[in-house]
Every structure is written in C-alpha cells, then in structure tokens.
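Dear H.,

Thanks for agreeing to be a second pair of eyes. The structure we're designing against is below in token form, covering all 583 positions.
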C-alpha cells in the first residue's frame, strides 16, 4: 500500500518531451510508440515547472520515484533547463540515499537559482552523463525487477525504471554537450529596440503570448504587432529539442513613416507584421485557398472607346494638339477594376500587393523612376516598334514568386530562400474592336525586355522603395507558411490554434484597399508617330507550387552551422523573441 506522502517533479516543456518520445531509442525518427491512458504520458504532458504529485511510501515506490526524477532531470537538461535538471537530480539522490550526489547536485541547484549562468557546465554535464546516461545507472536503490503498476482511472500503465529510461534517453550523450554550449553562449539581450544581425521569433511562443494577452482583455504591444522589429525573413528554423518553429532575420528599432508603415530606423525597410503572418497562415492552411492574387484590369467598354478615339484622331495629332489628346485619352480610360482573391479584400496583405502592382506599372509606363539601370517600356522600344501599329498596344505585366532555390540543411531543420522574392512576367495581348483582350501566351520586344529588367533590378527597387520591400516581406512570409504546412509543422507553430486559425480569436485590422485605380496607360510620340499603351496584370502568390517544386530544393550543409547560435535553449520559456549569437 502507498501512503499519503507526495513530492514534486520538475518537468521540461511538454512539446520537447512529445518530440523526444516520438523517436525510438535507436534514433529512427517519427516511430511513435504510443502508450495510451498511462500515468507516465500524463506526467509528460505537464509543462516546465509544473508540479506533479507522485506517491512515495515503500522502498520500491521511492526507488521508482527516484528513477522518474532522473528521467525528468535528463529531459530537462536536454531541453536546456539546467536549473530544473539539478533540482530533480538532487531530489532523486535524496530518495535513493546517495548523499554525495545529493550534495553535488544541490550545489549546482543553488548556484543556478541564485542567477549564476555558469560559464562552464562541464561538472554538471558530467554528473548528468554519469547518473542518467544509461538505464543501468537508474538502479542505485535496487528496485524490484518486476514493473510496478500505477492505477489510473482510465487505465493501467506498467513500467519499471529501465523501461522509463529507454523511453526518453538518447543513445548519444553528446546531445547534452551541445545543449550546454547553446545555453552558455546564448545571447541574453532583452532590449527589443536594439539592432540585431539575426533576431529570432518563435511562432509557437508568439501565439501563446498573444493568446494570454487576448484572454486578459489587453491590447497587443507594438513589439508583437511589429514582430520584434525584424525587417526581412532570412531563415526558417525548426528546433525539435524544444518544439519551436522559428523565423529569423535582421532587426532594429522601428518608427512610423508618413504613409503609416512601420519601418526600420537602420535601413528604412518595412518590418514584418503580425497581421500579415496570421492572414498568410490562414491562406496556406489545409482549409485555405493556398494562393493569393490581385489584378488591375481595364473595363472592356473603356478599351473599345479608346480604340475608337485613337483611330479617329491619330492623323490630326501634332505638337499643338498633343496636350489635349493626352487629357482626352486619360478621361476616356478612366478607372480600372481592382480584384483581390485568396486573402481578405480589406487585409494589409491585399493593400501591399495592390500597391506593388500599381507601382510596377507606373515604372513601366514612365510615370515613376525605377532603380538605376532600369528603363521604361518606351525607352526600350526598337525603331520598328516606335512606328506604332495604328492601334493601342495592350500589354500584361504581373509579378509572381521568384526564389531560384529553397536551401535546406541536411537535418531538414534549417531553411533559407535564394534568389529574388519576386519576378516580373509579361505577355502581349490583342485588343479586339469591342475592347476585349485576347492572350497570346508570349511576349516580344520591349514588353519582354521590361519584364527581364524589372526582375533583375527587383532587389535594388526593394532597397529604395518600401512598396516593393513590403512585397518582399509578404512573399517571404508566404513561403514560410507554405513550407510549414508542407512539412506538417502547423501544430508545432500553433497556426491551427483557436487564436491563429481560420476565424480564430485574433482579428486582423481592416485596411482600406481601393476597388478601382486610375488606368495604367499613356502615350508617347516618336518622330511624328504616336504609340499608345495600356497595361493590365497583377500579383500572384502561388508559394505552395514553389515549395512543391523538387527542382528548387537544394541541400546546403553549411546551413547546419546557423542552428546552434539561433537556438532557443537558454532563453527561458516565456520569451517569444531572442537574438542569435552571430559568429
């Protein structure tokens, strides 16, 4: 019979335990050994620092409890929580009567509880490896060889110390050394406004922080809305040892510019937005459309009217009538329809892609200057194209996902995107007499040249124009979401939580996105000849197709070196952001 005495066990985070538990003792990933309705799994589901009450009475029960404490100590150490590891090892030694180990572990526990970060973990690691390194080490108190049953209201779980150890212990003790290195070298900057070459945000911890603040009725901080000031996604990390899915990139303090956009004080780039992350997470979810797009297209009746006007007035065009001709042309063209799909019409993401599409067309028709080295469509016209064809030239320009490659570490835990985020595509179109447009499926001459130049200079454009930098961020976050869902990590990233999922409790802000814009059309006179163009097109984000393209996936061994400096180990479970110790 067990008596009424109880004692606490400090367990590491449940997500770490879940991941480790889902790997068999020989390291074969995702070979789940499920022991349902067991007391042990109930223990594993308790978060770090939670108190689990375990009975301790007779010698056998105390030995069993001592073994469980060792198990918890080892798991805590491998998750980077050395304070809990030392306490659990100390309590295990006390139960088993090992006074020397109790004293040694107790000294470490006191030092850690006093805020000493320990520059050298060697002695504690040695204790952990010596006393939790193999199932045989767990039998100090000589527990009975037969497993002890733990009665539970919904079932019975039977397990002895050796079996408990084999469920959790990894066969390679070097893992503890890696954890100790990560904790000892962790960047403990707590000033979120301080510049950082590589700042990390854990999506799962972010979700929990948002959920907690929403539950208390409080408003989310500027730090959360602006995702810790990160201005570009450079990496996507997964950390199985802690269960975190993490994005990383450069960060700094931010201010609000004249357009209301949050931008970095160091480079003027827009910073990542929580609203965009949630919108795109829902878009690329299993029950989402898995793409987004916008289009700015002319109205058919306006194109018909312009064709008639150009055909009737081309012969009378000269220097004296050019200004009047341009004004009448603009009045006839009027407004184009703006159509958004795959994302909410009033979302910030919709506003970003519509603004970027329209700016691209302004550059193409010469209304806005592009980056150095870029030219407008008119500047690229050949002599034969400058003669004009007697009718309005109909062009289509649109932006789609670029990304020459998705680089991945051999472990599959680090991803990096290579190449321009966006590319410009073009097509010649035929305008019928009734104003309808017919696709040709090809682009030639100045039309094709402009698309190539725009793609080549897109990075330069993004450095000087926040409209395109914002588009980069939207595309990069879209790639992150598409990868997370392709890898089956949405649960680890908590994108399917009641907060972030479709119709979740987090509500994104409503943004005024135009449904009509002035037609992107203009004209120019070359040696007495008049060339009139009208441009349609849009933006399309089909990142699921990019992620599914096997030809784009490249294994990059050097990426593995980024994992340790970016690790959440040593940061504390309450932190949703931290800075990497950049080498």
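And this is the sequence the design step returned. I haven't edited it by hand at all.
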């Amino acid at each position: 019979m067990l008596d009424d005495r109880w004692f606490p066990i400090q367990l590491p985070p449940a997500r770490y335990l879940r991941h480790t538990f889902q790997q068999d003792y020989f390291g074969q990933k995702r070979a789940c050994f499920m022991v349902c309705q067991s007391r042990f799994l109930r223990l594993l589901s308790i978060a770090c620092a939670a108190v689990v009450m375990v009975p301790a009475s007779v010698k056998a029960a105390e030995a069993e409890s001592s073994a469980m404490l060792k198990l918890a100590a080892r798991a805590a150490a491998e998750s980077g929580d050395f304070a809990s590891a030392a306490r659990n090892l100390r309590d295990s030694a006390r139960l088993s009567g090992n006074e020397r180990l109790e004293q040694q572990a107790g000294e470490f526990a006191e030092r850690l509880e006093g805020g000493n970060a320990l520059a050298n973990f060697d002695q504690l690691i040695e204790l952990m490896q010596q006393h939790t390194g193999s199932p045989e080490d767990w039998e100090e108190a000589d527990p009975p060889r037969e497993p002890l049953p733990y009665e539970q209201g919904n079932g019975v779980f039977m397990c002895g110390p050796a079996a408990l150890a084999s469920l959790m212990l990894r066969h390679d003790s070097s893992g503890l050394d890696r954890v100790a290195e990560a904790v000892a070298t962790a960047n403990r900057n707590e000033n979120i406004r301080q510049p950082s070459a590589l700042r990390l945000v854990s999506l799962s911890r972010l979700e929990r922080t948002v959920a907690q603040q929403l539950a208390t009725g409080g408003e989310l901080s500027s730090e959360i809305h602006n995702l810790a000031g990160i201005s570009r996604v450079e990496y996507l990390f997964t950390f199985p040892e802690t269960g975190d899915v993490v994005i990383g990139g450069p960060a700094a303090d931010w201010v609000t510019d004249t357009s209301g956009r949050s931008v970095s004080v160091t480079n003027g780039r827009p910073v990542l937005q929580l609203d965009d992350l949630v919108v795109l997470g829902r878009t690329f979810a299993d029950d989402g459309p898995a793409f987004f797009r916008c289009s700015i297209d002319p109205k058919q009746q306006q194109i018909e009217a312009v064709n008639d006007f150009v055909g009737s007035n081309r012969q009378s065009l000269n220097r004296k009538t050019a200004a009047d001709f341009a004004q009448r042309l603009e009045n006839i063209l009027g407004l184009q329809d703006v159509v958004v799909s795959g994302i909410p019409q009033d979302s910030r993401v919709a506003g970003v892609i519509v603004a970027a599409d329209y700016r691209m067309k302004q550059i193409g028709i010469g209304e806005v200057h592009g980056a150095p080295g870029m030219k407008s469509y008119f500047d690229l016209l050949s002599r034969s194209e400058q003669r004009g064809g007697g009718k309005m030239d109909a062009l289509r320009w649109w932006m789609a996902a670029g990304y020459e490659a998705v680089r991945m570490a051999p472990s599959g835990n680090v991803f990096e995107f290579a190449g321009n985020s966006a590319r410009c595509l073009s097509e010649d179109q035929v305008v019928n007499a009734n104003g309808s447009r017919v696709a040709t499926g090809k682009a030639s001459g100045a039309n094709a040249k402009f698309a190539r130049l725009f793609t080549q200079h897109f990075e330069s454009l993004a450095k000087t124009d926040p409209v395109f930098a914002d588009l980069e961020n939207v595309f990069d976050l879209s790639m992150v979401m598409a990868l997370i869902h392709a890898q089956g990590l949405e649960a680890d990233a908590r994108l399917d939580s009641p907060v972030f999922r479709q119709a979740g409790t987090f509500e994104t802000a409503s943004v005024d996105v135009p449904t009509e814009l002035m037609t992107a059309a203009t004209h120019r006179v070359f040696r007495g000849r008049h060339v009139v163009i009208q441009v349609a097109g849009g933006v399309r984000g089909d990142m699921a197709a990019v992620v599914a393209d096997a030809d784009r996936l490249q294994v990059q061994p050097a990426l593995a070196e980024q994992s340790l400096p970016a690790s959440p180990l040593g940061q504390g479970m309450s932190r949703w952001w931290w800075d990497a110790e950049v080498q």
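Two observations from my side: The CA atoms of residues 80 and 569 lie 5 Å apart. The radius of gyration is 31 Å.

Warmly,
E.
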